[in-house]
Write a structure and sequence with these properties.
Length: 406
């Protein structure tokens, strides 16, 4: 469980059940420390058997002279009495419930928790109220300390102010560094929701004199939680953009998270790795050429070759269509002419420049009698330079070129 602490900028983690997963306490500490240092932060961490014991100790350490020291002792099997002994030297200033009474406690000569614990509980309750005793009991494990876990928001939106706003000093590495920080937070938000996203929208706020807000959407082929995939596409887009004024801040918004799970690891490079490589290539091409320039084929239930496939934008939502019933022969070209090209004849032989040599056929295709009838006899022919083409003859014995084989 992850929840907020009593003091500002505190985060509480329940780690006892996860120590074996992370390889022990110190490995977990190093993982958390590296994560914060990647954001330019130096965390102060403390461990306790109760939430209040940990957060009070962490605040004490953060305000002490040696903030680099981390209070991490393996207390996973320690008793409540041992944990209470560790809290005895805690100054009362680091107990939030004691803040309203610090002046009175100081006049009484009480400065540490151990001094307060020597006094009768009845007298403390009458003089300082029950909240202080309840907090101490919760810290020592004598009463439950319920916490509300952090709930990720439904939508992600975060803004980062840029340290340099001059257009002459603005550079692509600076923008990429700012966007990378936002992406790290966004991908952590996605993983917390066990979701991914294929749409990342960046907004660049220009100087106050113009107040323009430039949008830069990034569309991917598949949902992801990997910031490197988004950064690769973002770098390509920024190379094509020219900012005419100062940029004050960068904002990242995610509005359409999708259910997504991490891919299982495969020792050998199988179909899963090949699919990921293809998606990476499609992402890069879409940023260079535009998403509308990349289309994917989808089979249709039609005997007419020009209607047997429909081209869809790769970045669009998946289309649910009825699977094709008619299975076309494998000897079909991938490159079809639209419309088919009429061919000249030399006697009975069709010509594409020189006369063509028929290699296979005919294949009769006769369909659409209910609207515009199609009746064709298809042949595979060879040109003089040994290229294979797909031609057909209509009932009027006219020849047409319909496609090229690769």
């Amino acid at each position: 469980m992850v929840c907020l602490g009593q003091w500002p900028h505190q985060v509480l983690l329940e780690v006892q059940a996860s120590l074996r997963l992370w390889g022990g306490l110190h490995h977990l500490y190093q993982t958390i420390q590296r994560g914060y240092q990647s954001l330019g932060l130096q965390p102060v961490m403390a461990l306790g058997p109760t939430p209040r014991a940990a957060e009070w100790t962490a605040e004490w350490m953060a305000c002490s002279a040696n903030t680099a020291t981390t209070h991490l002792t393996d207390q996973t099997s320690s008793s409540v009495h041992q944990a209470g002994a560790d809290l005895h030297p805690l100054p009362l200033a680091f107990i939030p419930e004691a803040q309203p009474h610090l002046e009175t406690l100081s006049r009484m000569g009480l400065s540490r928790l151990e001094d307060l614990l020597r006094l009768p509980r009845t007298g403390l309750s009458q003089r300082f109220g029950t909240e202080l005793l309840k907090a101490i009991d919760a810290a020592l494990g004598r009463r439950p300390d319920f916490r509300q876990p952090i709930q990720a928001p439904a939508h992600f939106s975060q803004t980062l102010e840029l340290p340099i706003t001059s257009v002459h000093q603005l550079s692509q590495p600076l923008l990429l560094q700012a966007c990378e920080k936002l992406l790290i937070h966004a991908c952590a938000w996605l993983r917390a929701r066990q979701a991914g996203s294929r749409y990342f929208e960046f907004f660049f706020q220009t100087a106050r004199q113009s107040q323009a807000r430039l949008a830069l959407p990034i569309s991917l082929a598949q949902p992801t939680t990997d910031p490197l995939q988004v950064l690769t596409c973002l770098r390509i887009q920024l190379e094509q953009m020219v900012f005419q004024s100062e940029i004050e801040s960068v904002e990242l918004c995610l509005q359409q998270p999708e259910s997504w799970g991490p891919a299982s690891a495969d020792f050998f490079s199988g179909p899963q790795q090949q699919t990921e490589q293809l998606q990476t290539l499609l992402n890069r091409l879409s940023q260079r050429l535009g998403a509308d320039q990349i289309v994917l084929p989808q089979l249709q239930d039609s005997h007419a070759p020009e209607q047997a496939c429909r081209w869809l934008h790769w970045s669009g939502p998946p289309h649910k269509t009825r699977p094709a019933v008619y299975q076309a022969p494998e000897t079909r070209p991938l490159w079809l002419l639209d419309p088919p090209q009429a061919l000249a004849r030399q006697g009975p032989r069709p010509c594409l420049g020189p006369p063509l040599t028929l290699k296979a056929g005919p294949e009769r295709i006769e369909t659409q009698w209910w609207s515009r009838p199609i009746q064709r006899d298809y042949f595979i022919a060879q040109t003089q330079d040994h290229r294979l083409v797909w031609i057909f003859r209509n009932p009027d014995h006219q020849w047409f070129l319909h496609g090229y084989f690769g």
